[in-house]
Amino acid sequence: MKRVADNQIVRFIASAAIVCAITAGFFRSLHVNPTTAGFAFLLAILIVSAAWGLRYAIFMAVLATLAYNYFFLPPLFRFTIADPQNWIALFAFLFTAIVASQLSERARREALQSNQRRHEVERLYRFSEQLLVSENVFELLNAIPRYIVESFDVSGAAMFLERKQEIYYFNSASQFLFPAEQLKAISGRGEPVLDRDRALCFMPLRMGVRSVGSLGLSGCALSRETLEAIGSLAATAIERASTMEKLTKTEAARESDRLRSVLLDSVTHEFRTPLTAIKASAETLLSDVELDQPQRKDLLTVINEESDRLNRLIGEAAEVAQLDSHQLQLRLEPHQISEAIEEAIAQSRVALQNHAVQTNIPDNLPSVRIDVDRISEVLVHLLDNAGKYSAAGTPIQITVELRDGEIVTSVADHGPGIDDMEQEMIFEKFYRGRNQRMTIQGTGMGLAIARAIVELHGGKIGVTSQVGRGSLFFFSLLAT
User: Fold this and answer.
1) H-state helical runs in 325-406
2) Could you tell me the fold of the domain covering 136-247?
């Protein structure tokens, strides 16, 4: 307040100094006639009015009238006028100066208001843009007070949401400025409250005639129209977030039901085959049929292998559940990718027994931060697929290369290939190729697990394929 008062005093002194300067310049140096001096005073008054406002212009007009009378209208150096016509001229000068000052002040005020409205419209546009381009609508509610502070240069903000009965603050200081009871009262009453003395503004958030919450701003010098526009934009964003939340929950429930159905169908079909083999082998062993030692060993081998297969199926289903719930923990340590490749080849010896494995791994490759067991699992899934879908006797190539700071590992086979449409779907859970789903065993979980593990490592996985020529699956990991 003291700075404002000091500034006003300086302007009054400056206005008086301008009158003195014009008087001295025209009376002592230029010796102009009274008409010229009057126009000079009038022009100076208009400039002051346009720049500083009406109060300074009126003060200056009174001083200029006195100076005009004393120094330019006869008799000079006296506050009297000999010719009655000069009285008319003097009052005409004073009236013109005041009226012109008022018009100039009105033009200045309208220009300021127009600029203010333009700035507020620009800020409203930026605010609406922030609300619309926000990527995560579920974090939008926490971000709205911050967006308001950034867009409208207010010092604090708080937003009350009726549906959730929660208050979102810009910062901890805002909690003391906006009591919960007052925000709830504004929302219930549906009417704005503007406390200009404390620069506090409270606005309901309305969707039409329905109030969805309220908004409080500190350091607020915004017009009521702008406040209402902010409230409408914020209410629209809240409704959008609520709608997206409902849609997401509905879609998640629908997807969960679909995946549960697909999983049950797939697992039931896959479990039935090994269970049938185990059951048949066990019944044969328990029967009165005389079996020699090699026959008994063959049946026991079937039971053992099919039990392993069942165990693997159960493990894959459990791992898919872990990945979906983000409960899989990685132990990231620097390793050479060759360690994971060697381990994967050893684990896939049954699937690769009819294929020669060719490896091309350059020396002196940089290490990668990986969970070596999980990356080995990725390679096991890729090698198992290559073994299942390739004709017996065809080789499988494993290639590693350093490309743009990434270690790219690829597994190539000579199978039937994958058409372009299916290449976009094979990494989805439980999806299996149309031409092989009835002839080759599998659950469709392997590639989905492989993709999830690679993405948890911050890498990417993909496939290039040509029908009738084979497929090349690859994944990339950032080198250290």
Assistant:
1) 337-347, 372-389
2) Beta-Lactamase (3.30.450)
